[in-house]
Write a structure and sequence with these properties.
alpha/beta
Length: 300
């Protein structure tokens, strides 16, 4: 069994632990009314997008999400939360150091605390039980989002039950043979759709795209044809499923909690990788963390 296959299968248990941890770490996470930014890179950025929408929907305060490299340093925030599995990513460390010097409170949600992040973040929330050996992130990302989701009262046992269902149920037939995948979301699940497409690209080198569900109609639906899959991680707009089917595409409707739907996509990515003879633990051109030294990427 690959590392990523094992780790994705442990997600329900990790989510339970994160939800239990959230009350104890309440003081170092964004407080109601604080103007907050959540940052990350790659997968962590997409989790930040989802978490930002959830926090605003919960009435907790204005919340933005940025890739760490694109953080607008001229803006003022009451707190910045950084999601970083490894605690070594250059852009995250550089940003946290700059925010520390500017006096902006920061919290890092991290898988491995024994890394440089402990010297630049004001506070740490350690999810070492969700850290991973794999390059391709699954459980750390969804566990970090569950922590933030629980913190704003938007997580419940049903999400964990749905994740177990996502691991147990067969995938829709013939998906692994398809050549192109589009993932759609609405609200907080738009970030999950972006992450679903990234997982397909990373693990299986599949052609994968992602959009807000209504935006799919504004041009991208033109790629829909026989051999393509359109997967809605959340409730779909009226008539969209029929439109995809008329174009000859395969429609997959999200039935579970959107985060559990992402777990189903994790499984699909591995199924497509296996069909193509790829090793998901050795994704092409990727390393576990991007560390820059003298302008060049160091392998980590």
């Amino acid at each position: 069994m690959s590392h990523v296959a094992y780790e994705l299968g442990t997600q329900p248990a990790c989510w339970e632990r994160a939800a239990e941890l959230a009350p104890a770490r309440r003081a170092v996470l964004p407080q109601p009314g604080e103007r907050t930014a959540i940052v990350g890179c790659g997968t962590s950025y997409y989790m930040a997008q989802a978490a930002a929408v959830l926090r605003e929907e919960a009435g907790q305060g204005e919340t933005d999400a940025f890739p760490a490299s694109e953080f607008p340093r001229h803006r003022r925030y009451d707190r910045v939360v950084a999601l970083t599995r490894s605690g070594t990513t250059t852009e995250v460390l550089d940003l946290l150091a700059a925010l520390r010097d500017a006096g902006v409170p920061t919290t890092a949600v991290v898988g491995d605390p024994a890394t440089p992040v402990m010297t630049v973040a004001d506070e740490l929330v350690v999810l070492d039980f969700a850290d991973e050996q794999s390059v391709v992130q699954t459980r750390f990302a969804t566990t970090a989002l569950t922590l933030l989701r629980a913190h704003v009262g938007r997580h419940g046992p049903a999400a964990v039950a749905d994740a177990r269902t996502a691991l147990d149920e067969p995938l829709p037939g013939e998906l692994a043979d398809r050549g192109q995948f589009t993932f759609l979301g609405r609200g907080w699940s738009v970030g999950l759709a972006h992450e679903a497409a990234l997982k397909m690209r990373e693990a299986s080198l599949a052609w994968a795209e992602s959009y807000p569900a209504m935006e799919y109609r504004h041009g991208p639906v033109s790629i829909c044809a026989p051999g393509t899959v359109t997967w809605s991680l959340d409730e779909a707009p009226d008539g969209l499923a029929a439109q995809v089917r008329r174009a000859g595409g395969q429609w997959v409707a999200g039935r579970l909690d959107p985060l559990a739907e992402l777990v189903r996509v994790h499984r699909l990515a591995l199924a497509v990788a296996a069909r193509r003879g790829l090793d998901p633990d050795a994704p092409r051109n990727l390393t576990r963390s991007v560390i820059l030294t003298t302008g060049e990427e160091a392998v980590r």
